[in-house]
Specification:
Elements: H1 22-28, H2 47-66, H3 74-90, H4 94-106, H5 116-126, H6 129-141, H7 148-160, H8 164-173, H9 179-191, H10 195-207, H11 214-226, H12 230-242, H13 249-262, H14 265-278, H15 283-295, H16 299-311, H17 318-330, H18 334-343, H19 349-361, H20 365-377, H21 384-396, H22 400-412, H23 419-431, H24 435-444, H25 448-455, H26 471-484, H27 487-499, H28 506-518, H29 522-531, H30 537-557, H31 563-575, H32 579-588, H33 595-608, H34 611-624, H35 629-641, H36 645-657, E1 666-671, E2 674-679, H37 688-704, H38 728-739, E3 746-750, H39 756-768, E4 773-776, E5 781-785, E6 788-789, H40 794-799
Parallel strand pairs: 3-4
Antiparallel strand pairs: 1-2, 1-3, 4-5, 5-6
C-alpha cells in the first residue's frame, strides 16, 4: 500500500533537502491574510484582566459591522453578540469567545440558556477556571442552573478543567439528569484515573433507570484504556454487545486513543488490527493511531496509513494532518511533513508549532523565524508553546540573549511564562554549559523581582508571578549539581524536594541518588535509594553508576573510602542481588570487617535466599557476636526458604543447645479498665478463637487488595509456621476491632520494633476497617490511617 503515498508526498531522496523551499512553497499556495472578523478580535487568556481593552477595541472597530446602528435594544445586541460567539465556536477560536463575552457584558447584553453552553465549552477548551466560575455565578443568579442543557455543560466544563468536586456538586444539585449528565461525570472520573468510581457511577446510572447509550459505554471503555487497563476495556466491549449494543468505530477509537495516550503503542497497534477485522477505520482512527507510529518510529506503517487516507478520500483536517506531520517529523522525514503541511487548507496553532519545532530542532533558526512570521500573516496568534520552542532552542545553543528576548516577548504579548518556559531555560543552559545561569534561575524562579535583575536587565519588574519548580526543573538542577560536584547546593535542593513532596517521584529520587553518588556521598545515595518505593530501570542504572564512582573515589578524586563507605556499597550491591560482588568487596577492604558490615550482607542474603554466602556472613557474625541469637534465626530462615531442612534443623538445635533465645516479644492494648497482653507464641488469651477468626476475615480482604505475607517463618519440612502470621501486634489490633466502637482509635504498644509484614498488613487493615490505629514500638510512633502510616515508611528505611 505504501506505493500510493508517492502521489501525495515527495520521494525519500528529497525529504531532507526541502526545508529551505518551504517559505516559497507556502507563498505559492497563496497564504493570504485572513480578512474574517474573528482573526482580528484581540484574544485573552484571563478575561477579567482584559475586559476594558477588549470592550473598547470591540466597540470602536467591530460591533458596527455586526449590529444595526439604528437598533440599540438589548435583545438585538445580544442576538448580534450571539452570532459572533457562534462564529468563533465554529472556527474554534475559543479565546475570542471569551473576549466577545467580555464586550457583551460591558455593553449591557447577557447570554441566554442557548448561548451559555457555547461559552462554557470555550472555558473548558481553554481550561479557564476563573472565567468558568464567573459564568457559573451568573448561571446561579439568573437562575439557569436548573436547565438540563446548561447543567450538563457546567458538569462537562468543570470536568475538563480538572475540578471533579465542582462537577459533582453541580450534578448533585441538578433536579433532572439525563444520560448526558451521567456520561459527563463518568468521563470526568475516568479522566482523573478514578476508574472504580467511574464504574460505580456507570452502575448507579443504570440503577437510577437511565439506560447508558453507546457514548456512555465509550466513555467508560476509553477511560480504562487511557489508564492502561486494556483487558478491562476489552471486557467492557464484550459487555456492551451483551447489552444489545454493537461497538461502533468510536468504541474502538476510544480504546486505541486511550492506549496511545498512555504510551502503550504496541497494544494500540494490536487493538487497531483487531478493529480492522470488525469496523472500517475513519479519520479519527487514523489520527489516533498515527502517534503510535511516531512513538515506535514505524515509518512504513505510517506511510501505509497515509496511503489509506488518500485512497478513501478522507478530508485532511488539522487533526489528521497534524498527526501525519508529527509522524513524519518523528521518523526523520521532514520533507514529507512539509508537503502535508502545505496541502492543509485549514491550519491551526498546534500544526504551526509542530513544524516550527522541527526547524528549531535541526538548528535552522532562520527558517523557524520565517515560519513564525508566516504563521502570523496567516492570521494565527503564537501561544506560549510557540515561544517556548524558541526559548528552548536558543538556550540549548547557549544563546541566552535570544532566549531571554523570546521570554520577554511572551510578557509583551500579554501571555504568562509558565514552568515549561523556565524548564526550557534551565535545561538548555545546563546542556550548553551555562551552569551558573541555570542555578541562578532555580534560585530566582521563586523570587520574581530579583529574577530580572540578575538574569536580564530588560525583564526588570516584568515577571510579577512566582513560578514554582516542578519535577523536570529539579532533575535539571540536580544534574548541574552532580556535574559540578555541588554537594552543599544539592542538599539544599534535597530539602526543597522534601518540603514540596517530590520524593515520591521516581525520576527525582533517581536524580538525587546520582547527585549524591557523583559527590562521593555514598551514605546519602544509599539512604535515598532504599527510601524509594518504586524503583525502575533508571534507579538501578544510577545505583550501578554509583558503584563505578566508588571505584574512582581514590584514583581520581583522592578520597580514601572509610568502613562506612564500604558498608554502604555492600548494602547497595546486596540489594541489587550482586552478592558475590559484595562478598568479594568485603574480602578486599583494608579494614577488619565489623558486625554491621557482615549483618548488612546477611540481610541481603535473606532477601535473595542465598544460603551459601548467607552462611559465610553468619559464621563471621557468630564469632563477632556469639550471644546474638538473631543472627542464627536469620540463617535458620534462609535455610528454610531454600528448602534445606536438615541444615535448618541443625541451626535450630544449635540455638537451643547454646541456651540462646530471643527477647520475649509482647504487645498490649487497653480495653476499658483492663490491659490485654499478647506474648509471642502464646495462644492462651480467652478470646483467641474470636481474634483469629477476625484475622482470617481481614486476611481475606487484604488478599483481594493485593497483600502478600512477608517475613514468613518456616517449620520443618517447608510448612509455614501459622503463628508467624499472627504477630502480637496483629492480635492486639484484632482484639481492638472486636472490642472498641468504630469511632474509637485503636492504641497498641509493643516492646520491639515492628516487622515489615506487620507494618504492611496494618496499613491495609486501617483502610479496610476505616480505623485510626496507633502503635508505639519503642523506635517509632505509627499512626495508620486510610492505608498509610505517619512515619512515611521511614521505619522501613531505618532497618534497610
Amino acid at each position: 500500500m505504501s506505493s500510493c503515498c508517492c502521489c501525495a508526498i515527495p520521494s525519500a531522496s528529497t525529504s531532507n533537502s526541502s526545508l529551505p523551499i518551504l517559505p516559497s512553497l507556502l507563498q505559492a499556495k497563496s497564504l493570504s491574510p485572513l480578512h474574517r472578523l474573528p482573526s482580528r478580535i484581540p484574544t485573552t487568556h484571563s478575561s477579567p484582566q482584559c475586559t476594558a481593552q477588549a470592550t473598547s477595541t470591540f466597540n470602536s472597530r467591530y460591533l458596527p459591522k455586526v449590529a444595526d446602528p439604528f437598533d440599540e435594544t438589548p435583545h438585538s445586541k445580544a442576538r448580534s453578540y450571539a452570532k459572533l460567539i457562534s462564529s468563533h465556536c465554529r472556527s474554534q477560536r475559543w479565546s475570542d469567545v471569551i473576549s466577545v463575552l467580555a464586550s457583551m457584558i460591558a455593553d449591557g447584553a447577557t447570554p441566554d440558556r442557548f448561548l451559555l453552553p457555547k461559552i462554557l465549552k470555550a472555558c473548558s477548551k481553554l481550561r479557564d477556571w476563573g472565567t468558568a466560575a464567573t459564568v457559573h455565578g451568573y448561571v446561579i443568579t439568573a437562575p439557569l442552573e436548573v436547565d438540563i442543557v446548561v447543567g450538563n455543560s457546567l458538569v462537562d466544563m468543570y470536568s475538563k478543567c480538572g475540578d471533579i468536586t465542582s462537577a459533582r456538586g453541580v450534578f448533585d444539585r441538578m433536579p433532572v439528569r439525563d444520560v448526558v449528565s451521567w456520561t459527563a461525570l463518568v468521563n470526568a472520573y475516568a479522566d482523573a484515573g478514578l476508574l472504580d468510581v467511574a464504574q460505580a457511577m456507570f452502575q448507579s446510572m443504570r440503577e437510577n433507570g437511565v439506560r447508558p447509550d453507546l457514548i456512555s459505554w465509550n466513555a467508560l471503555i476509553s477511560g480504562f484504556a487511557r489508564n492502561g487497563e486494556t483487558g478491562m476495556a476489552l471486557l467492557l466491549l464484550d459487555e456492551l454487545r451483551e447489552n444489545g449494543l454493537q461497538p461502533g468505530t468510536n468504541s474502538w477509537n476510544g480504546v486505541v486513543s486511550g492506549l496511545v495516550q498512555k504510551g502503550c503503542f504496541d497494544d494500540a497497534l494490536e487493538i487497531f488490527r483487531q478493529m480492522c477485522l470488525h469496523e472500517k477505520p475513519n479519520a479519527v482512527t487514523i489520527a489516533s493511531i498515527l502517534p503510535a507510529c511516531s512513538g515506535l518510529t514505524a515509518l512504513n506503517l505510517g506511510q501505509e496509513l497515509h496511503s489509506y487516507v488518500i485512497r478513501n478520500g478522507m478530508k485532511m483536517n488539522v487533526f489528521l494532518g497534524g498527526s501525519l506531520i508529527d509522524m513524519y517529523l518523528k521518523c526523520g522525514k521532514s520533507g514529507f511533513a512539509e508537503r502535508v503541511f502545505a496541502d492543509l487548507e485549514n491550519r491551526n496553532v498546534p500544526v504551526w508549532n509542530a513544524l516550527i519545532a522541527a526547524y528549531a530542532d535541526e538548528d535552522k533558526m532562520s527558517e523557524a523565524l520565517d515560519l513564525l512570521d508566516l504563521m502570523q500573516k496567516d492570521g494565527f496568534v503564537p501561544n506560549v508553546i510557540t515561544y517556548n520552542t524558541f526559548i528552548a532552542a536558543y538556550a540549548r545553543r547557549g544563546r541566552k540573549d535570544e532566549a531571554f528576548k523570546f521570554l520577554f516577548e511572551i510578557i509583551q504579548k500579554g501571555l504568562k511564562p509558565n514552568v515549561v518556559s523556565m524548564n526550557a531555560l534551565t535545561s538548555g543552559f545546563h546542556h550548553s554549559g551555562l551552569n551558573d545561569e541555570a542555578l541562578d534561575l532555580f534560585r530566582e524562579m521563586q523570587l520574581p523581582k530579583s529574577f530580572s535583575t540578575r538574569c536580564s536587565s530588560v525583564l526588570i519588574g516584568m515577571l510579577d508571578v512566582i513560578i514554582q519548580p516542578n519535577a523536570v526543573t529539579i532533575n535539571s538542577i540536580l544534574s548541574v549539581c552532580a556535574d559540578l560536584k555541588l554537594h552543599h547546593f544539592g542538599k539544599e535542593v534535597h530539602g526543597f524536594i522534601l518540603r514540596n513532596s517530590f520524593e515520591s517521584n521516581v525520576f527525582v529520587s533517581s536524580a538525587l541518588v546520582d547527585m549524591y553518588a557523583k559527590c562521593c556521598d555514598m551514605s546519602s545515595a544509599t539512604k535515598v535509594f532504599h527510601g524509594m518505593k518504586d524503583k525502575n530501570v533508571v534507579s538501578w542504572n544510577v545505583l550501578m553508576a554509583g558503584w563505578k564512582l566508588f571505584k574512582m573515589m581514590e584514583d581520581f578524586f583522592g578520597v580514601s573510602p572509610t568502613l562506612e563507605h564500604f558498608t554502604c556499597m555492600v548494602d547497595m550491591l546486596g540489594t541489587a542481588g550482586l552478592l558475590e560482588e559484595s562478598l568479594d568487596l568485603i574480602r578486599r577492604i583494608p579494614f577488619r570487617p565489623d558486625a554491621c558490615l557482615w549483618a548488612t550482607l546477611l540481610k541481603a542474603c535473606r532477601l535473595h535466599s542465598n544460603y551459601e554466602i548467607g552462611e559465610t556472613a553468619a559464621r563471621a557474625l557468630f564469632e563477632l557476636e556469639p550471644q546474638n541469637a538473631s543472627n542464627r534465626i536469620v540463617l535458620y530462615n534462609i535455610f528454610a526458604m531454600s528448602g534445606l531442612w536438615d541444615s535448618a534443623s541443625t541451626m535450630r538445635n544449635a540455638l537451643r543447645d547454646q541456651g540462646l533465645k530471643m527477647v520475649d516479644i509482647c504487645s498490649w492494648i487497653e480495653i476499658g479498665s483492663a490491659i490485654h497482653s499478647f506474648k509471642s507464641g502464646d495462644s492462651t488469651h480467652p478470646e483467641m478463637e474470636t481474634i483469629l477468626a477476625m484475622w482470617n476475615k481481614l486476611a481475606d480482604g487484604m488478599s483481594k487488595g493485593g497483600y502478600v505475607p512477608q517475613n514468613i517463618v518456616f517449620c520443618d519440612q517447608g510448612e509455614v509456621d501459622p503463628f508467624t502470621c499472627y504477630h502480637t501486634e496483629k492480635l492486639a489490633v484484632c482484639l481492638g476491632i472486636i472490642s472498641l466502637r468504630a469511632n474509637i482509635p485503636i492504641r497498641v504498644s509493643k516492646n520491639v520494633r515492628m516487622c515489615i509484614d506487620c507494618h504492611s498488613s496494618i496499613k491495609f487493615i486501617s483502610k479496610i476497617e476505616d480505623r485510626d490505629i496507633f502503635i508505639t514500638d519503642g523506635c517509632f510512633y505509627h499512626h495508620f490511617k486510610d492505608g498509610t502510616c505517619s512515619c512515611g515508611d521511614k521505619w522501613l528505611r531505618s532497618i534497610s
